[in-house]
Structures are given as structure tokens and as C-alpha cells.
């Protein structure tokens, strides 16, 4: 039976016991207490507690309150383009969750503040928190599954629903909000049922964060990025790239796993001096260079038309579908008009370098003799300006990059005409930071470089300026992420013999009968022969018997590897005859 507040007068402070009333629930008569709340300070200010008033309880006289539809946050009126439905504040104390069902033929707004928004409040006036989601194409009544239901846990005493339509007017809009007593734990299905996108599941929200730098007391939440996705302005200090296959194994610019060390085809360490077999210096005018303080300094001198250039004696041997790379260090002079200071990998027509072109520091690419520079201020990677979003950190704190200090740079990329190319810089904390990415695939009509046989080069040049420019560098290297070598590729003092075992032939030679002295046997044939001829005169030494002789031809140089053993007896003269020891008829398989 219905009970109104007028039937149960309450005098504040009277201590009057409320009467009971019968209630029929599912054809069963039960007893309940009719609960009213009165203000002790204002006589006559009281209200019944029920599901439709501002005052509600979940349990009334031992009967659990049931889920109910909240009419104040439900609607069936279609919205115009960009129109907003705003529900009323509702007290949901004692309830567990909201289930919001949306049937519509148009997507909702999808901004940071507009869509399907649940506002939460402690007092029903001030918004203290909000949940937001969106109605997308797959959630529309026109989709295969049709419609969508969203479930939100109760977070504060009051809630309000605000729905913003998208840019197209609705013809269908059925919005219903159910206030639920019991929690929603997801969708229960049979083990052989197909899992579909409209089934409900529990979402666990977790925050990935870490220390900004070694021994830093500052912690930063992290941005998760797909593999090979470079950082951009606005990223937090920590960026974590996740590989769907193996996130702990390095990958090249093609996304392939790198299972072998990067192979240096050229390397120069200026702390050991200037090796003329590795570097060709070229000077013009007052240009000069010096080796010292652990590096090389290239200078123009204080006159126009002067330059100094270092060029490697070998070029990059690019391996198709493998990554090429180049490392270099540089302290660049402040740029001035009518000059340049460069360091990188290029030939007369193609390649890449970093440095100043006039007064602008940047990354330059040369394609078929045409040079295009991307200024550092226009690069699409880290700003390197010390702002909070920069990953160029020292001790976990972003710092500004200074090209007038020595820094370590890395260029790497794929080719096949249109591979991705990335310029990176090492930050003071030891990590690599992307400065710029050439996103070549799907953007070019010709190859980004017409040739790949690049030299390492460093150059300072005054064309019209008379300022003395000095470029300092510690070393450089280039190569490929590849562990094979073509049989036809030239072998020389500058190349690492990839996949080739280097061996030295040596043996023990007696020294005046007073013990054994290790003597290195050079690989050239005439030196080996001379060594054996000198042993002819040592008649009192133990017999040196040749047990095995191997003669190999390798790029025109004969290498002999000889194993000698000491046995008692007298040496045979014929064993030390050069004419008998080596001959062109010796079988290479012996």
C-alpha cells in the first residue's frame, strides 16, 4: 500500500515510533518500516525515503532495493547535429554501478570533454570527477551487432549523464540509464562460444612509470609506442616502444631482428693519430688540421676560399635489405655566413651529413647532386631544447643540446630506394634520442639516393668568409647490419673480413740451444723460405720435420701455414731447400 508523509506525522525530537505498513512484493505480503527523514532544526521539514526521491536507501525493512531505470538521465528524443542532452543529478549512495544503454544511428562527439560523459559529485552541484566514452561506428544500430551498453562503477554520491551528438543529426536515439544494486562482472559465455566485440569485460587501468634517470628522485609516467615509432613533441620524458614479437631484441630499420653485431666496414680512432691508409686529408688556402687531445681538429684558417677535408679511403658496401649505419662525433664551430662545417657520409652526388650550412645547423641529404637541408628547428623528433617533454636528459632532467660541445650522432636507415632514415643523438644519460626521421616510403617518386657507395667525410670551408672555423671530432665508423661478405668484394687493410677467420702461421725456433724462442713466421712465401734456409746451418738442433704443407691463393697473395714438430735425429738437407719446399705443383688440399 502507498504511504504518504502526511499519514505519518513526525514531530522533531518527539521520539515517536513509526507505524508499520504492509507491502505486497511478488504476491507475498511482507512487513516494512516506512522511513522518513526530518530536519531537527526545522519542524515539519521531512521527506519519505523512496526510490524516486532525493533520499534513498538500498535496504528497506529487510527487503533489498531493486535495479531501476533513472528517467532523469534517460531520453528517447533524437538530437540535432552537435546537440547536447544533459541529465539531472541523482543520488546513488548505496548502489554499485550504472548501466547506460545507447541505441542511435549517428556517432557521438569524440573530443577530450564531449561524448558520453558521466559526471560525479559529492554534493550534486560541483563536478569532482568524470568518465568519458564514445559511441563509434561499430556501436550504431546500423552495425551488425547494433547498439551498445556501457557500465560504470559508482564513484561518488551523485552522478549526472551528459551526451553530445556528433556532426550529423540523429533519427534514432534511445538512451536508458539503469542504476544497479549488484555489480556487473562481465559477460558469461560457454567455452565454445565466439568472443565478439560487444561482450562486456573488465578493464584494468594500470599506469606504467619509471625513474627519469639513474639515481634520479623524479618519476615519470610513460608513453607506449608501436615499434619504430619515433618520439614527437608532447611526449613525456619516458617513451616505451613495444614490439609485438620480441620487445627485448634489437631490430633494424626494416623491423628485422638483429642477431649479430653491427659490422664496421670502416672505423677511425683519431686518438691513435691519423692513419693515411684510412683517411685522405685535402687542404686549400690556409686550411690545416692537427691531431691531439684525443681527436682531430680541422681548420679553415682566417682567410676566404680556404678549407680542410678528411675523406675515407674506402666506401660503404651496402647490403640489400639490411640496415646501413654510421656513427660520428663532432664539436661544430658556430656557423657563419659564406661557410659550412659538415660531418657525415657522402660521395660527390649522394649521401647525408650534419652540421652548419651558413648559420643554420641541420641534417642535409644530397640526391643526385641536389642538397636539401632540414634545419634542427624544423626536425620532427625531439626538440632538444630542455623542455619537460624532451628525452635529451642529464640525470633524468631535460637539458638543451649544444652543438658547440662534442656530441655523438648516429645515422641509420634502409635503402632499396625508399627505406626509412633516422638521425639520432646520444643523450648524457646514455640513451639514443631521435632528432629527425625521413619517412620515405609512400612519399617519393625516385630513390632518396642514387648511389650508396658513400665515404666518411668531414669538412670545413670558408667560401666568402674569413673567420677561422675549427671542427673537432674523436672518431667515426660506418657499416651494415650484416655478417656476410661477397667473395668478389676487395679485401684490404680498411675492411673487416666478415665471416672470414684470420689466422697467423707461426712456430717455435731454437735460439742458440738455450731454450725455445717463439718466432712469428710472416705469411709471405719468400719470408717463410728465408727462415727455413737460415735453419740449414743449425745442424746441432733437433730435427724440424715438415708434417704438412698448404699453399693457398687469396687475392694474389700466397699464404703458407706450416706446422713443425721436433723429433730426434739429423736434419735432411732437402727439407730446407727452398726449391723443394714450395712449388706450384703442391696440392692445395694437402
Tag the structure with descriptive keywords.
590 residues; mainly beta; Jelly Rolls; 4 domains; seven-stranded antiparallel beta sheet; six-stranded antiparallel beta sheet; 2 helices; 40 strands
Which secondary structure elements does this structure contain, and how are they paired or packed?
Blueprint: E1 20-25, E2 28-33, E3 36-38, E4 46-48, E5 59-60, E6 63-64, E7 68-69, E8 84-86, E9 90-91, E10 97-104, E11 116-121, E12 129-133, E13 148-153, E14 158-164, E15 173-180, E16 209-211, E17 219-225, E18 238-241, E19 263-269, E20 279-284, E21 288-292, E22 295-299, E23 306-312, E24 324-330, E25 339-346, E26 351-357, E27 360-367, E28 370-375, E29 393-394, E30 397-398, E31 407-413, E32 421-426, E33 432-438, E34 455-462, E35 470-473, E36 475-480, E37 506-510, E38 516-520, H1 525-534, E39 543-554, E40 557-567, H2 578-581
Parallel strand pairs: 17-18
Antiparallel strand pairs: 1-2, 3-4, 5-6, 7-15, 8-14, 9-14, 10-13, 10-15, 11-12, 11-14, 16-17, 19-36, 20-23, 21-22, 22-35, 23-34, 24-31, 24-36, 25-26, 25-34, 26-27, 27-28, 29-30, 31-32, 32-33, 37-38, 39-40
Amino acid at each position: 500500500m502507498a504511504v504518504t508523509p502526511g499519514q505519518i506525522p513526525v514531530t522533531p525530537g518527539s521520539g515517536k515510533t513509526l507505524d508499520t505498513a504492509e507491502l505486497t512484493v511478488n504476491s507475498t505480503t511482507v512487513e516494512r518500516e516506512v522511513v522518513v527523514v526530518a530536519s531537527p532544526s526545522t519542524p515539519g521539514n521531512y521527506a519519505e525515503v523512496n526510490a524516486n526521491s532525493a533520499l534513498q536507501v538500498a535496504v528497506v525493512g529487510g527487503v533489498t532495493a531493486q535495479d531501476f531505470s533513472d528517467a532523469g538521465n534517460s531520453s528517447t528524443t533524437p538530437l540535432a547535429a552537435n546537440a547536447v542532452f544533459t541529465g539531472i543529478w541523482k543520488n546513488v549512495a548505496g548502489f554499485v554501478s550504472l548501466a547506460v544503454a545507447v541505441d542511435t544511428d549517428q556517432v557521438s562527439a569524440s573530443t577530450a570533454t564531449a561524448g558520453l560523459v558521466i559526471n560525479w559529485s559529492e554534493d550534486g552541484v560541483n563536478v569532482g570527477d568524470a568518465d568519458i566514452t564514445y559511441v563509434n561506428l561499430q556501436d550504431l544500430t546500423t552495425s551488425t551487432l547494433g547498439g551498445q551498453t556501457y557500465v560504470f562503477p559508482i564513484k561518488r554520491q551523485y552522478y549526472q549523464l551528459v551526451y553530445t551528438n556528433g556532426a550529423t543529426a540523429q533519427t534514432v536515439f534511445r538512451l536508458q540509464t539503469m542504476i544497479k544494486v549488484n555489480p556487473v562482472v562481465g559477460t558469461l559465455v560457454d567455452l565454445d562460444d565466439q568472443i565478439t566485440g560487444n561482450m562486456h569485460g573488465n578493464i584494468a587501468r594500470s599506469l606504467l612509470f619509471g625513474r627519469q634517470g639513474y639515481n634520479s628522485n623524479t618519476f615519470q609516467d610513460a608513453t607506449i609506442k608501436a615499434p619504430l615509432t619515433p618520439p614527437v613533441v608532447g611526449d613525456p620524458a619516458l617513451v616505451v616502444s613495444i614490439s609485438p614479437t620480441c620487445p627485448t631484441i634489437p631490430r633494424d630499420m626494416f623491423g628485422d631482428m638483429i642477431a649479430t653485431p653491427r659490422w664496421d666496414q670502416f672505423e677511425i680512432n683519431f686518438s691513435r693519430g691519423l692513419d693515411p691508409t684510412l683517411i685522405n686529408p685535402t687542404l686549400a688556402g690556409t686550411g690545416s688540421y692537427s691531431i691531439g687531445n684525443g681527436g682531430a681538429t680541422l681548420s679553415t684558417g682566417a682567410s676566404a676560399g680556404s678549407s680542410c677535408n678528411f675523406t675515407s679511403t674506402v666506401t660503404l658496401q651496402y647490403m640489400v635489405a639490411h640496415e646501413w649505419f654510421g656513427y660520428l662525433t663532432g664539436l661544430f664551430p658556430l656557423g657563419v655566413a659564406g661557410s659550412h662545417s659538415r660531418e657525415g657520409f657522402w660521395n660527390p652526388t649522394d649521401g647525408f651529413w650534419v652540421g652548419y650550412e651558413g648559420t643554420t645547423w641541420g641534417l642535409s641529404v644530397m640526391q643526385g647532386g641536389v642538397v636539401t637541408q632540414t634545419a634542427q628547428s624544423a626536425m620532427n623528433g625531439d626538440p632538444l631544447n630542455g623542455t619537460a617533454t624532451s628525452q635529451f636528459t642529464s640525470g633524468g632532467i631535460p637539458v638543451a643540446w649544444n652543438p658547440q660541445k662534442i656530441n655523438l650522432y648516429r645515422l641509420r636507415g634502409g635503402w632499396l630506394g625508399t627505406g626509412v632514415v633516422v638521425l639520432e643523438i646520444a643523450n648524457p644519460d646514455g640513451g639514443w634520442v631521435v632528432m629527425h626521421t625521413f619517412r620515405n616510403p609512400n612519399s617519393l617518386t625516385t630513390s632518396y639516393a642514387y648511389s650508396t657507395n658513400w665515404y666518411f667525410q668531414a669538412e670545413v670551408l670558408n667560401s666568402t668568409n674569413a673567420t677561422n672555423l675549427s671542427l673537432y671530432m674523436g672518431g667515426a665508423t660506418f657499416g651494415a647490419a650484416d655478417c656476410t661478405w661477397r667473395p668478389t668484394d676487395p679485401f684490404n687493410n680498411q675492411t673487416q673480413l666478415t665471416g672470414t677467420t684470420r689466422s697467423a702461421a707461426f712456430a717455435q725456433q731454437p735460439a742458440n740451444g738455450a731454450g725455445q724462442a717463439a718466432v712469428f713466421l710472416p705469411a709471405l712465401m719468400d719470408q717463410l723460405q728465408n727462415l727455413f734456409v737460415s735453419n740449414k746451418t743449425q745442424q746441432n738442433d733437433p730435427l724440424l720435420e715438415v708434417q704438412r704443407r698448404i699453399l693457398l691463393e687469396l687475392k694474389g697473395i700466397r699464404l703458407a701455414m706450416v706446422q713443425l714438430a721436433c723429433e730426434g735425429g739429423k736434419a735432411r738437407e732437402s727439407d730446407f731447400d727452398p726449391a723443394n719446399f714450395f712449388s706450384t705443383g703442391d696440392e692445395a688440399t694437402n
